[in-house]
Write a structure and sequence with these properties.
Elements (H helix, E strand, L loop, with lengths): L6 E5 L8 H11 L6 E5 L1 H10 L3 H10 L2 H7 L14 H8 L13 E7 L5 E4 L4 H8 L9 E3 L2 E5 L8 H6 L4 E6 L18 H8 L2 H7 L13 H23 L4 E4 L13 H14 L1 H9 L2
Parallel strand pairs: 1-2, 1-7, 2-3, 7-8
Antiparallel strand pairs: 3-4, 3-6, 5-6
Helix pairs in contact: 1-11, 2-6, 5-6
Length: about 300
């Protein structure tokens, strides 16, 4: 009797949108999908590490309790570190959740994807310290400082492998479910900002006044304004990642691809976790037939 095929998860980059991985994992479990391993990029690495450690419940509880005020306390601004923030809170969070300190001690196989800043090459972190590996994978350029690990300065894994199907297959997966938090409704990467109440205005209202002025953000804007720092940065990164993602998924297609459909959720609005988790559940529901068909055939 042959062994059951191993199911792998490829969890993609997406900042705050990546909280959708939590809802998708919940919905997959309810359909009877029992993954064996995970590879994650950026926020996919953070959620993937929690799943691999059997600490998804604790992470979801933390996400749902996150408020704008608590989010701001995590923003360790340091403009001399190669980014706006050093994001040391990511490593503290992982420790507080009770995630093992070394990747090889996780109950389930896990890989975090990062990018070598010097060579531009993709880096697969399959062994060694868990917390720095996840932090390195989640190093959004221009927002978070790069992470020094094993003598290399590492950037966000989304720059080289936004949805890490290849790493999931290399871990030994026979069947792969990939989750892309950055699906673009209507194919738009940016649209002229709305007056106050827009995602950009909400973000600006949380930041120190000196920083909002330096970045060209106006939380009190009464009319649409020109693209600001976050608009340009996020649009540029998402355009680049979309091109890389399309090319890589064409050559390395998963068995099931789940695409999110967010409209105005910015990558740093981590306190909007409930919305992202709900979208994760909807992603699975939209592909319910394909997932059940996959289960019948393995």
């Amino acid at each position: 009797m042959s062994a059951r095929p191993r199911i792998g998860l490829a969890l993609g980059a997406g900042g705050a949108r990546g909280w959708c991985h939590i809802g998708a994992l919940r919905a997959l479990a309810e359909l009877g999908v029992t993954p064996d391993l995970v590879a994650g990029t950026s926020m996919g690495a953070l959620v993937g590490a929690a799943w691999a450690a059997d600490r998804l419940d604790a992470l979801e509880e933390w996400v749902l309790a996150l408020t704008p005020a608590r989010f701001m306390r995590l923003m360790d601004v340091s403009l001399r570190s190669g980014g706006l923030v050093e994001a040391t809170g990511i490593e503290t969070l992982l420790a507080d959740l009770g995630i093992p300190a070394r990747i090889e001690d996780l109950p389930h196989p896990f890989t975090a994807i990062a990018t070598d800043m010097e060579t531009g090459r993709e880096v697969w972190l399959t062994r060694g310290p868990t917390y720095p590996a996840v932090r390195a994978s989640a190093g959004i350029p221009g927002v978070m400082s790069p992470k020094l690990l094993d003598g290399k300065w590492l950037l966000d894994g989304g720059l080289t492998n936004p949805v890490p199907v290849s790493a999931t297959r290399a871990l030994g997966a026979d069947v792969i479910i990939a989750i892309n938090p950055n699906g673009r409704p209507g194919g738009r990467f940016w649209q002229p900002p709305e007056p106050r109440g827009s995602a950009t205005a909400r973000m600006a209202a949380l930041l120190p006044e000196a920083l909002t002025e330096a970045l060209g953000l106006d939380p009190q804007a009464e009319k649409p304004t020109a693209p600001n720092y976050f608009d340009v940065l996020t649009a540029a990164i998402e355009v680049m990642e979309a091109q890389i993602r399309r090319a890589r998924l064409a050559g390395e297609p998963p068995h099931v691809l789940l695409n999110a459909a967010f409209s105005d959720l910015m990558v740093l609005e981590l306190y909007r976790g409930a919305e992202a988790i709900a979208e994760g559940r909807r992603m699975v529901e939209r592909q319910r037939h394909s997932i059940l068909e996959m289960l019948e055939n393995i």
